[in-house]
Amino acid sequence: MVVFQKPHALTDAPFHYCPGCTHGIIHRLVAEVIDELGIEGKTIGIAPVGCSVMAYNYFNCDMIEAAHGRAPAVATGVKRANPENIVFTYQGDGDLASIGMAETVHSAARNENITVIFINNAIYGMTGGQMAPTSLPGQVTQTSPYGRDVKACGYPIRVCEMLSELEGPEYLERVTVNSVPNIRKAKKAIRKAFQNQIEGKGFSLIEVISSCPTNWGMTPQAALKWIDDKMIPYYPLGVYKDRSAQKEEAK
Amino acid sequence: MSKLTFNTDNCKGCGLCVDACPKHILRLATDKINKKGHHPAEIIDQAACIACACCALMCPDVIITVEK
Questions:
Q1: Which CATH class for the A23-250 domain?
Q2: Using CB atoms, which residue from A18, A28, A180 is nearest to B62?
Q3: How many domains does the structure of chain B reveal?
Q4: d(Cα A85, Cα A200) in Å, to the nearest integer?
């Protein structure tokens, strides 16, 4: 009996990610959810710009490559034109929280019926480790060699907290993938985000705290620990908005 | 009888599976090099494997198949 195998929704192409990068885990979780819900034939994914720019090589469903940061805008168009399809975007923090902030906020405000998978690794990975809007105060990056100075560069943006102030979004949750229990929780959250879309509930965003061993300058093991020690205290895990649950409580 | 299969050519030798294994029966094969140039993960004691799939859940490159 097979206990675990590569999900069908992933292609056989080997990931180009650095050793120990958790992008691969998150790709797999999305693919497993697509398999379990049986929606591979009608799913359309939107790839971002960033490390996961070639995500279209790895998913067996239809994929579109969006301009930098514009994945939610493309997803809006695809979903409105083909409401029977399941549309998800897969975006990093340089894509979603930086150049694509307007698209993210407005698609959430409009409660577009799409699923957004947001990978937060607190750094620009693909371009070589520059400071991102999500880099932690004091974090050393290529463009902040003495640590992020909040007086000059401002404070990191907590996307889930910010979007939770809007009336629009249906479901916002922050998870991580630095341990086996956390991976199981992350899969549950991603599954719910896709389920919400199937039920027509609206905008779901899952923020996944991810690691970047190469640009953080750590071993993969140390990077997973750094998530626990540094990232989680600034970006607490949990559900930030769940309108369906709120309605249930109100009843 | 549980069985682990590694797609060794795609292994990047990050070692996350080694740390995830509750039975401590995985290691990076320092005497082997795969076509990517990494030391691939391997199982030391197949009989001790409980097929919990923790290694496969943690593997970022989805190279592990677990059978029971």
A1: alpha beta
A2: A28
A3: 1
A4: 11
How big is the A-B interface in CB pairs under 8 Å? Answer: 70
Distance from B47 to chain A by nearest Cα, in Å? 16
CATH number reported for the structural domain that contains residue B31 in this entry? 3.30.70.20
- The model's pLDDT over A97-141, given as tens digits with 9 standing for 90+, comes to 999 999 999 999 999 999 999 999 999 999 999 999 999 999 999
Tokens of A92: 């990093």
Low-confidence ranges of chain A (pLDDT < 50): none
Angstroms from A223 CA to nearest CA on chain B = 11
| Structure ipTM | 0.95
Question: Does residue A17 sit at the B interface (CB-CB below 8 Å)?
Answer: yes
Instruction: Provide the chain A residues 215-244 that lie in CB contact (below 8 A) with chain B.
Output: 220-221, 224
Helix-helix angle A101-109:A71-81, to 10 degrees:
40
Percent over 70 (pLDDT), chain A: 100
Among A134, A113, A116, which Cα is nearest to A125's?
A134
